[in-house]
């Protein structure tokens, strides 16, 4: 086999493989060759401030209250952590704002008076 034919075959195979791999990151969730982790996961990036009983405010990191290694946090899980912090008496109220990233795209999220609002 000639060297030019071999390199042309290698280039064609490499291009086909790269195109096949790239389809795994398209926006069609649950389809063949789609990576479901990115299609179904919900990530929350949020800044929260807790107000204590004596009126002081302090930053709240919700990831401190999740199991180690947890990084997928949707609105129901965020609300559960906020409910836990409010019931524990640590904060009178929690407020904040941020973004939610999911298969539906990016959308704003707010926490007002300890309630998640999309």
Number of helices: 3
Order of helices and strands: HHEEHEEE
Give the proportion of residues in helices: 25-40%
What is the approximate shape? rod-shaped
- What class do helices, strands and sheet pairing give? alpha+beta
- Gyration radius, in Å: 23 Å
Calculate the mean pLDDT score and round it: 81
Describe this structure in words.
With 118 residues, the protein is of the alpha+beta class. It contains 3 helices and 5 strands; from the N terminus they run H-H-E-E-H-E-E-E. The protein has helices spanning 3-22, 36-40, 75-87; strands at 43-51, 57-60, 93-102, 105-112, 115-117. It has a 5-stranded antiparallel sheet. The radius of gyration is 23 Å and the shape is rod-shaped. The termini are far apart. Residues 30-34 have low confidence and may be disordered.
List the helices and strands and how they pair.
Blueprint: H1 3-22, H2 36-40, E1 43-51, E2 57-60, H3 75-87, E3 93-102, E4 105-112, E5 115-117
Antiparallel strand pairs: 1-2, 1-3, 3-4, 4-5
Q: What's the quick description here?
A:
By secondary structure, this protein is an alpha+beta fold.
What attributes characterize this protein structure?
118 residues, five-stranded antiparallel sheet, 32% helix, rod-shaped
């Amino acid at each position: 086999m000639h060297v030019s034919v071999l390199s042309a075959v290698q280039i064609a195979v490499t291009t086909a493989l790269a195109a096949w791999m790239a389809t795994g990151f398209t926006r069609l969730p649950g389809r063949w060759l789609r990576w479901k982790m990115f299609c179904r996961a919900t990530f929350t990036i949020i800044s929260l401030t807790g107000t204590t009983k004596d009126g002081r405010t302090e930053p709240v990191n919700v990831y401190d209250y999740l199991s180690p290694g947890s990084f997928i946090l949707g609105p129901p899980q965020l609300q559960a952590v906020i409910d836990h912090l409010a019931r524990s008496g640590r904060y009178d109220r929690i407020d904040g704002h941020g973004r939610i990233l999911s298969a539906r795209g990016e959308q704003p999220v707010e926490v007002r008076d300890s309630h998640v609002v999309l």
